[in-house]
């Protein structure tokens, strides 16, 4: 069964304390991996798409990387405004749908 | 603001009732997707329409149906509602309808409470 697992479920950091969020997947064939950010009471907001192992994408304090089994979202020197739930999703080969993980709830304390 | 408009924002109804959720995609986007988000299930794909035609189906119950109209807005109909249908329902849109999917633009959702 296709599965997407995100860890940790929740992460609390101090402002400026860098860390990484993990998204591991077990799927029959990966066409793409997506990262979204979701603020409370809002819909997910697109961050990155990664298509092949070794690929990296960066945006401000965020960097997403992809291996054959997992993806990492690295956050460098985070600020309180980076607090949100971060969702990863995979597009499976032969399927016309995104499978989302449960998300990591990130809190950055000032 | 993603450009995707969902109405209503909140809906409170009783078991056994029927409701309609509405979505207007971003200008120019041909695909509309419906997702259900609950605390225990996470974000679950329900159905996708592309230019008026059903393109893909996910975990959508038979009690639920959707359609996309010629002006590209979409409606999700939920009938014979049960307590377990209480959730946040999101609509998303994208430019195309083929694969690989590019980024989706999500609305702010409709919070459905079934009492």
List keywords for this structure.
heterodimer, A: 110 residues, mainly beta, five-stranded antiparallel β-sheet, 11 strands, 0% helix, 60% strand, B: 115 residues, four-stranded antiparallel β-sheet, globular
Helix content of chain B: under 10%
Counting H and I runs of at least 4 residues, what is the number of helices of chain B?
Answer: 0
Helix content of chain A: under 10%
Written as H for each helix and E for each strand, in order along the chain, the element string of chain A is EEEEEEEEEEE
Question: How are helices and strands ordered from N to C of chain B?
Answer: EEEEEEEEEEE
**What gap, in angstroms, lies between the N and C termini of chain B?**
31 Å
Structural class of chain B: mainly beta
Largest interface: A-B, 23 and 23 residues
Structural class of chain A: mainly beta
Q: Care to count the β-strands of chain A? A: 11
Please report which band the strand proportion of chain A falls in: under 5%, 5-15%, 15-25%, 25-35%, 35-45% or over 45%.
over 45%
- Gyration radius of chain A, in Å: 13 Å
Q: The biggest beta sheet of chain A, please? A: 6 strands, mixed
Provide a quick synopsis of the model.
By secondary structure, chain A is an all-beta fold. Chain A has strands at residues 3-7, 10-14, 19-26, 30-38, 45-50, 56-59, 62-66, 70-75, 84-92, 98-100, 104-109. Helix content of chain B is 0%, strand content 52%.
């Amino acid at each position: 069964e296709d599965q997407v697992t995100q860890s940790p479920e929740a992460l609390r950091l101090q402002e400026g304390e860098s860390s990484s969020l993990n998204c591991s997947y077990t799927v029959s064939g990966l066409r793409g991996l997506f990262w979204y950010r979701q603020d409370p009471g809002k819909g997910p907001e697109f961050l990155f798409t990664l298509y092949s192992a070794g690929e990296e994408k960066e945006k401000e304090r965020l960097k997403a990387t992809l291996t054959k089994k997992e993806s990492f979202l690295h956050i460098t020197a985070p600020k309180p405004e980076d607090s949100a739930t971060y969702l990863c999703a995979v597009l499976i080969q032969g399927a016309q749908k995104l499978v989302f993980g449960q998300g990591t709830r990130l809190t950055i304390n000032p | 603001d993603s450009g995707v408009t969902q109405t209503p924002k909140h809906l409170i109804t009783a078991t056994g009732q029927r409701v309609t959720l509405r979505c207007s995609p971003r200008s120019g986007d041909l695909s509309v997707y419906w997702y259900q988000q609950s605390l225990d299930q996470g974000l679950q794909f329900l159905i996708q329409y592309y230019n008026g035609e059903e393109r893909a189906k996910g975990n959508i119950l038979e009690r639920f149906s959707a359609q996309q109209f010629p002006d590209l807005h979409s409606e999700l109909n939920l009938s014979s509602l049960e307590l377990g249908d209480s959730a946040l329902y999101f609509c998303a849109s994208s430019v195309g309808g083929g694969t690989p999917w590019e980024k989706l633009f999500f609305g702010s959702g409709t919070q459905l409470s079934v009492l």
